[in-house]
Amino acid sequence: MRLTLIQKGGAAELPLAALRLTTSLNGAGILEWETPYRGLMPEEGDAVRLEEDAGIFYGYVFRVEDDGRRLRVLCYDQIKYLLYKDTRQFTNRTADSILTEFVRERELKAGTIAATGVTLPSLLYENQTLLSMVQDALEETFRVSGQRFWLTDQCGSLTLEKAENLQSGVLLSGENQLTGWTRSSDIDGATYTRFLLLQEDRRSGFRRVTTAENAEQRKNWGILQYFERVDHSWNEAQVQARLAALKESYSDKRRSFTAEGLGDFRCLAGRGALCQIGDEAAESCLIEESEIEGEGGVYRMRLKLRVL
Length: 308
Known about the structure:
Phage tail proteins - horseshoe like beta roll fold, alpha+beta, globular, 16% helix
């Protein structure tokens, strides 16, 4: 494991005493590290690169602590710069174009930003973080198309790709990394059995409600209702297409894993992995949260995964 501190005067590799790397689909990547070497003092804004066989993390120093024996440093990746609030309005924009605008404005570095293919007619955000705006636009894209895109920082490059393209190549099972796991399923969240769309124009008095149901799931789970206002100008075909997309995207229960095991720095949030419990068939999962920590080259990890 190599950690490199990059300052205006050059770059230097520092010895690591301990580290913790935390990544999440809902926030910035966080690298906390300690070093006994005090001959080079990190400063706020310095860049830090963590790598093994390949790059793992690239971010910037936000806090430095010195107790006379060790330096303790806190770093964030570029998504940190999307966690500041603003007020914005977008008309006829795609989620990827909104992200590209933020990348340019905040002078960030981008890698692959996939075209999401869905033009969103109107979005208004007041006093929200830039990240929450992007995530909302991606969620709206999912409602329309059923295509899920995730934003991650791939070792210094902001990346937007379809979930199936972000694979770690890792098989998680009791025969390799896993030392413990918990499997769960739930309908407590984004699972619905009835979908209701309201079209309303108060000036003309026009009002129409259109519904769709998943009858089989309703028998099992009761009425779990999704409600949304849509533009009054939509025709019947547009309304029905919206309902079909919602049913496709939000009718299933959510299945997930939490897992613990030997640290593998390929297992970062936003990447896919195969999970295999006992003799069961391996399931394709998305890593939603990852925490890897340790010292002396020995690392443990805790993962939260969603079954795809």
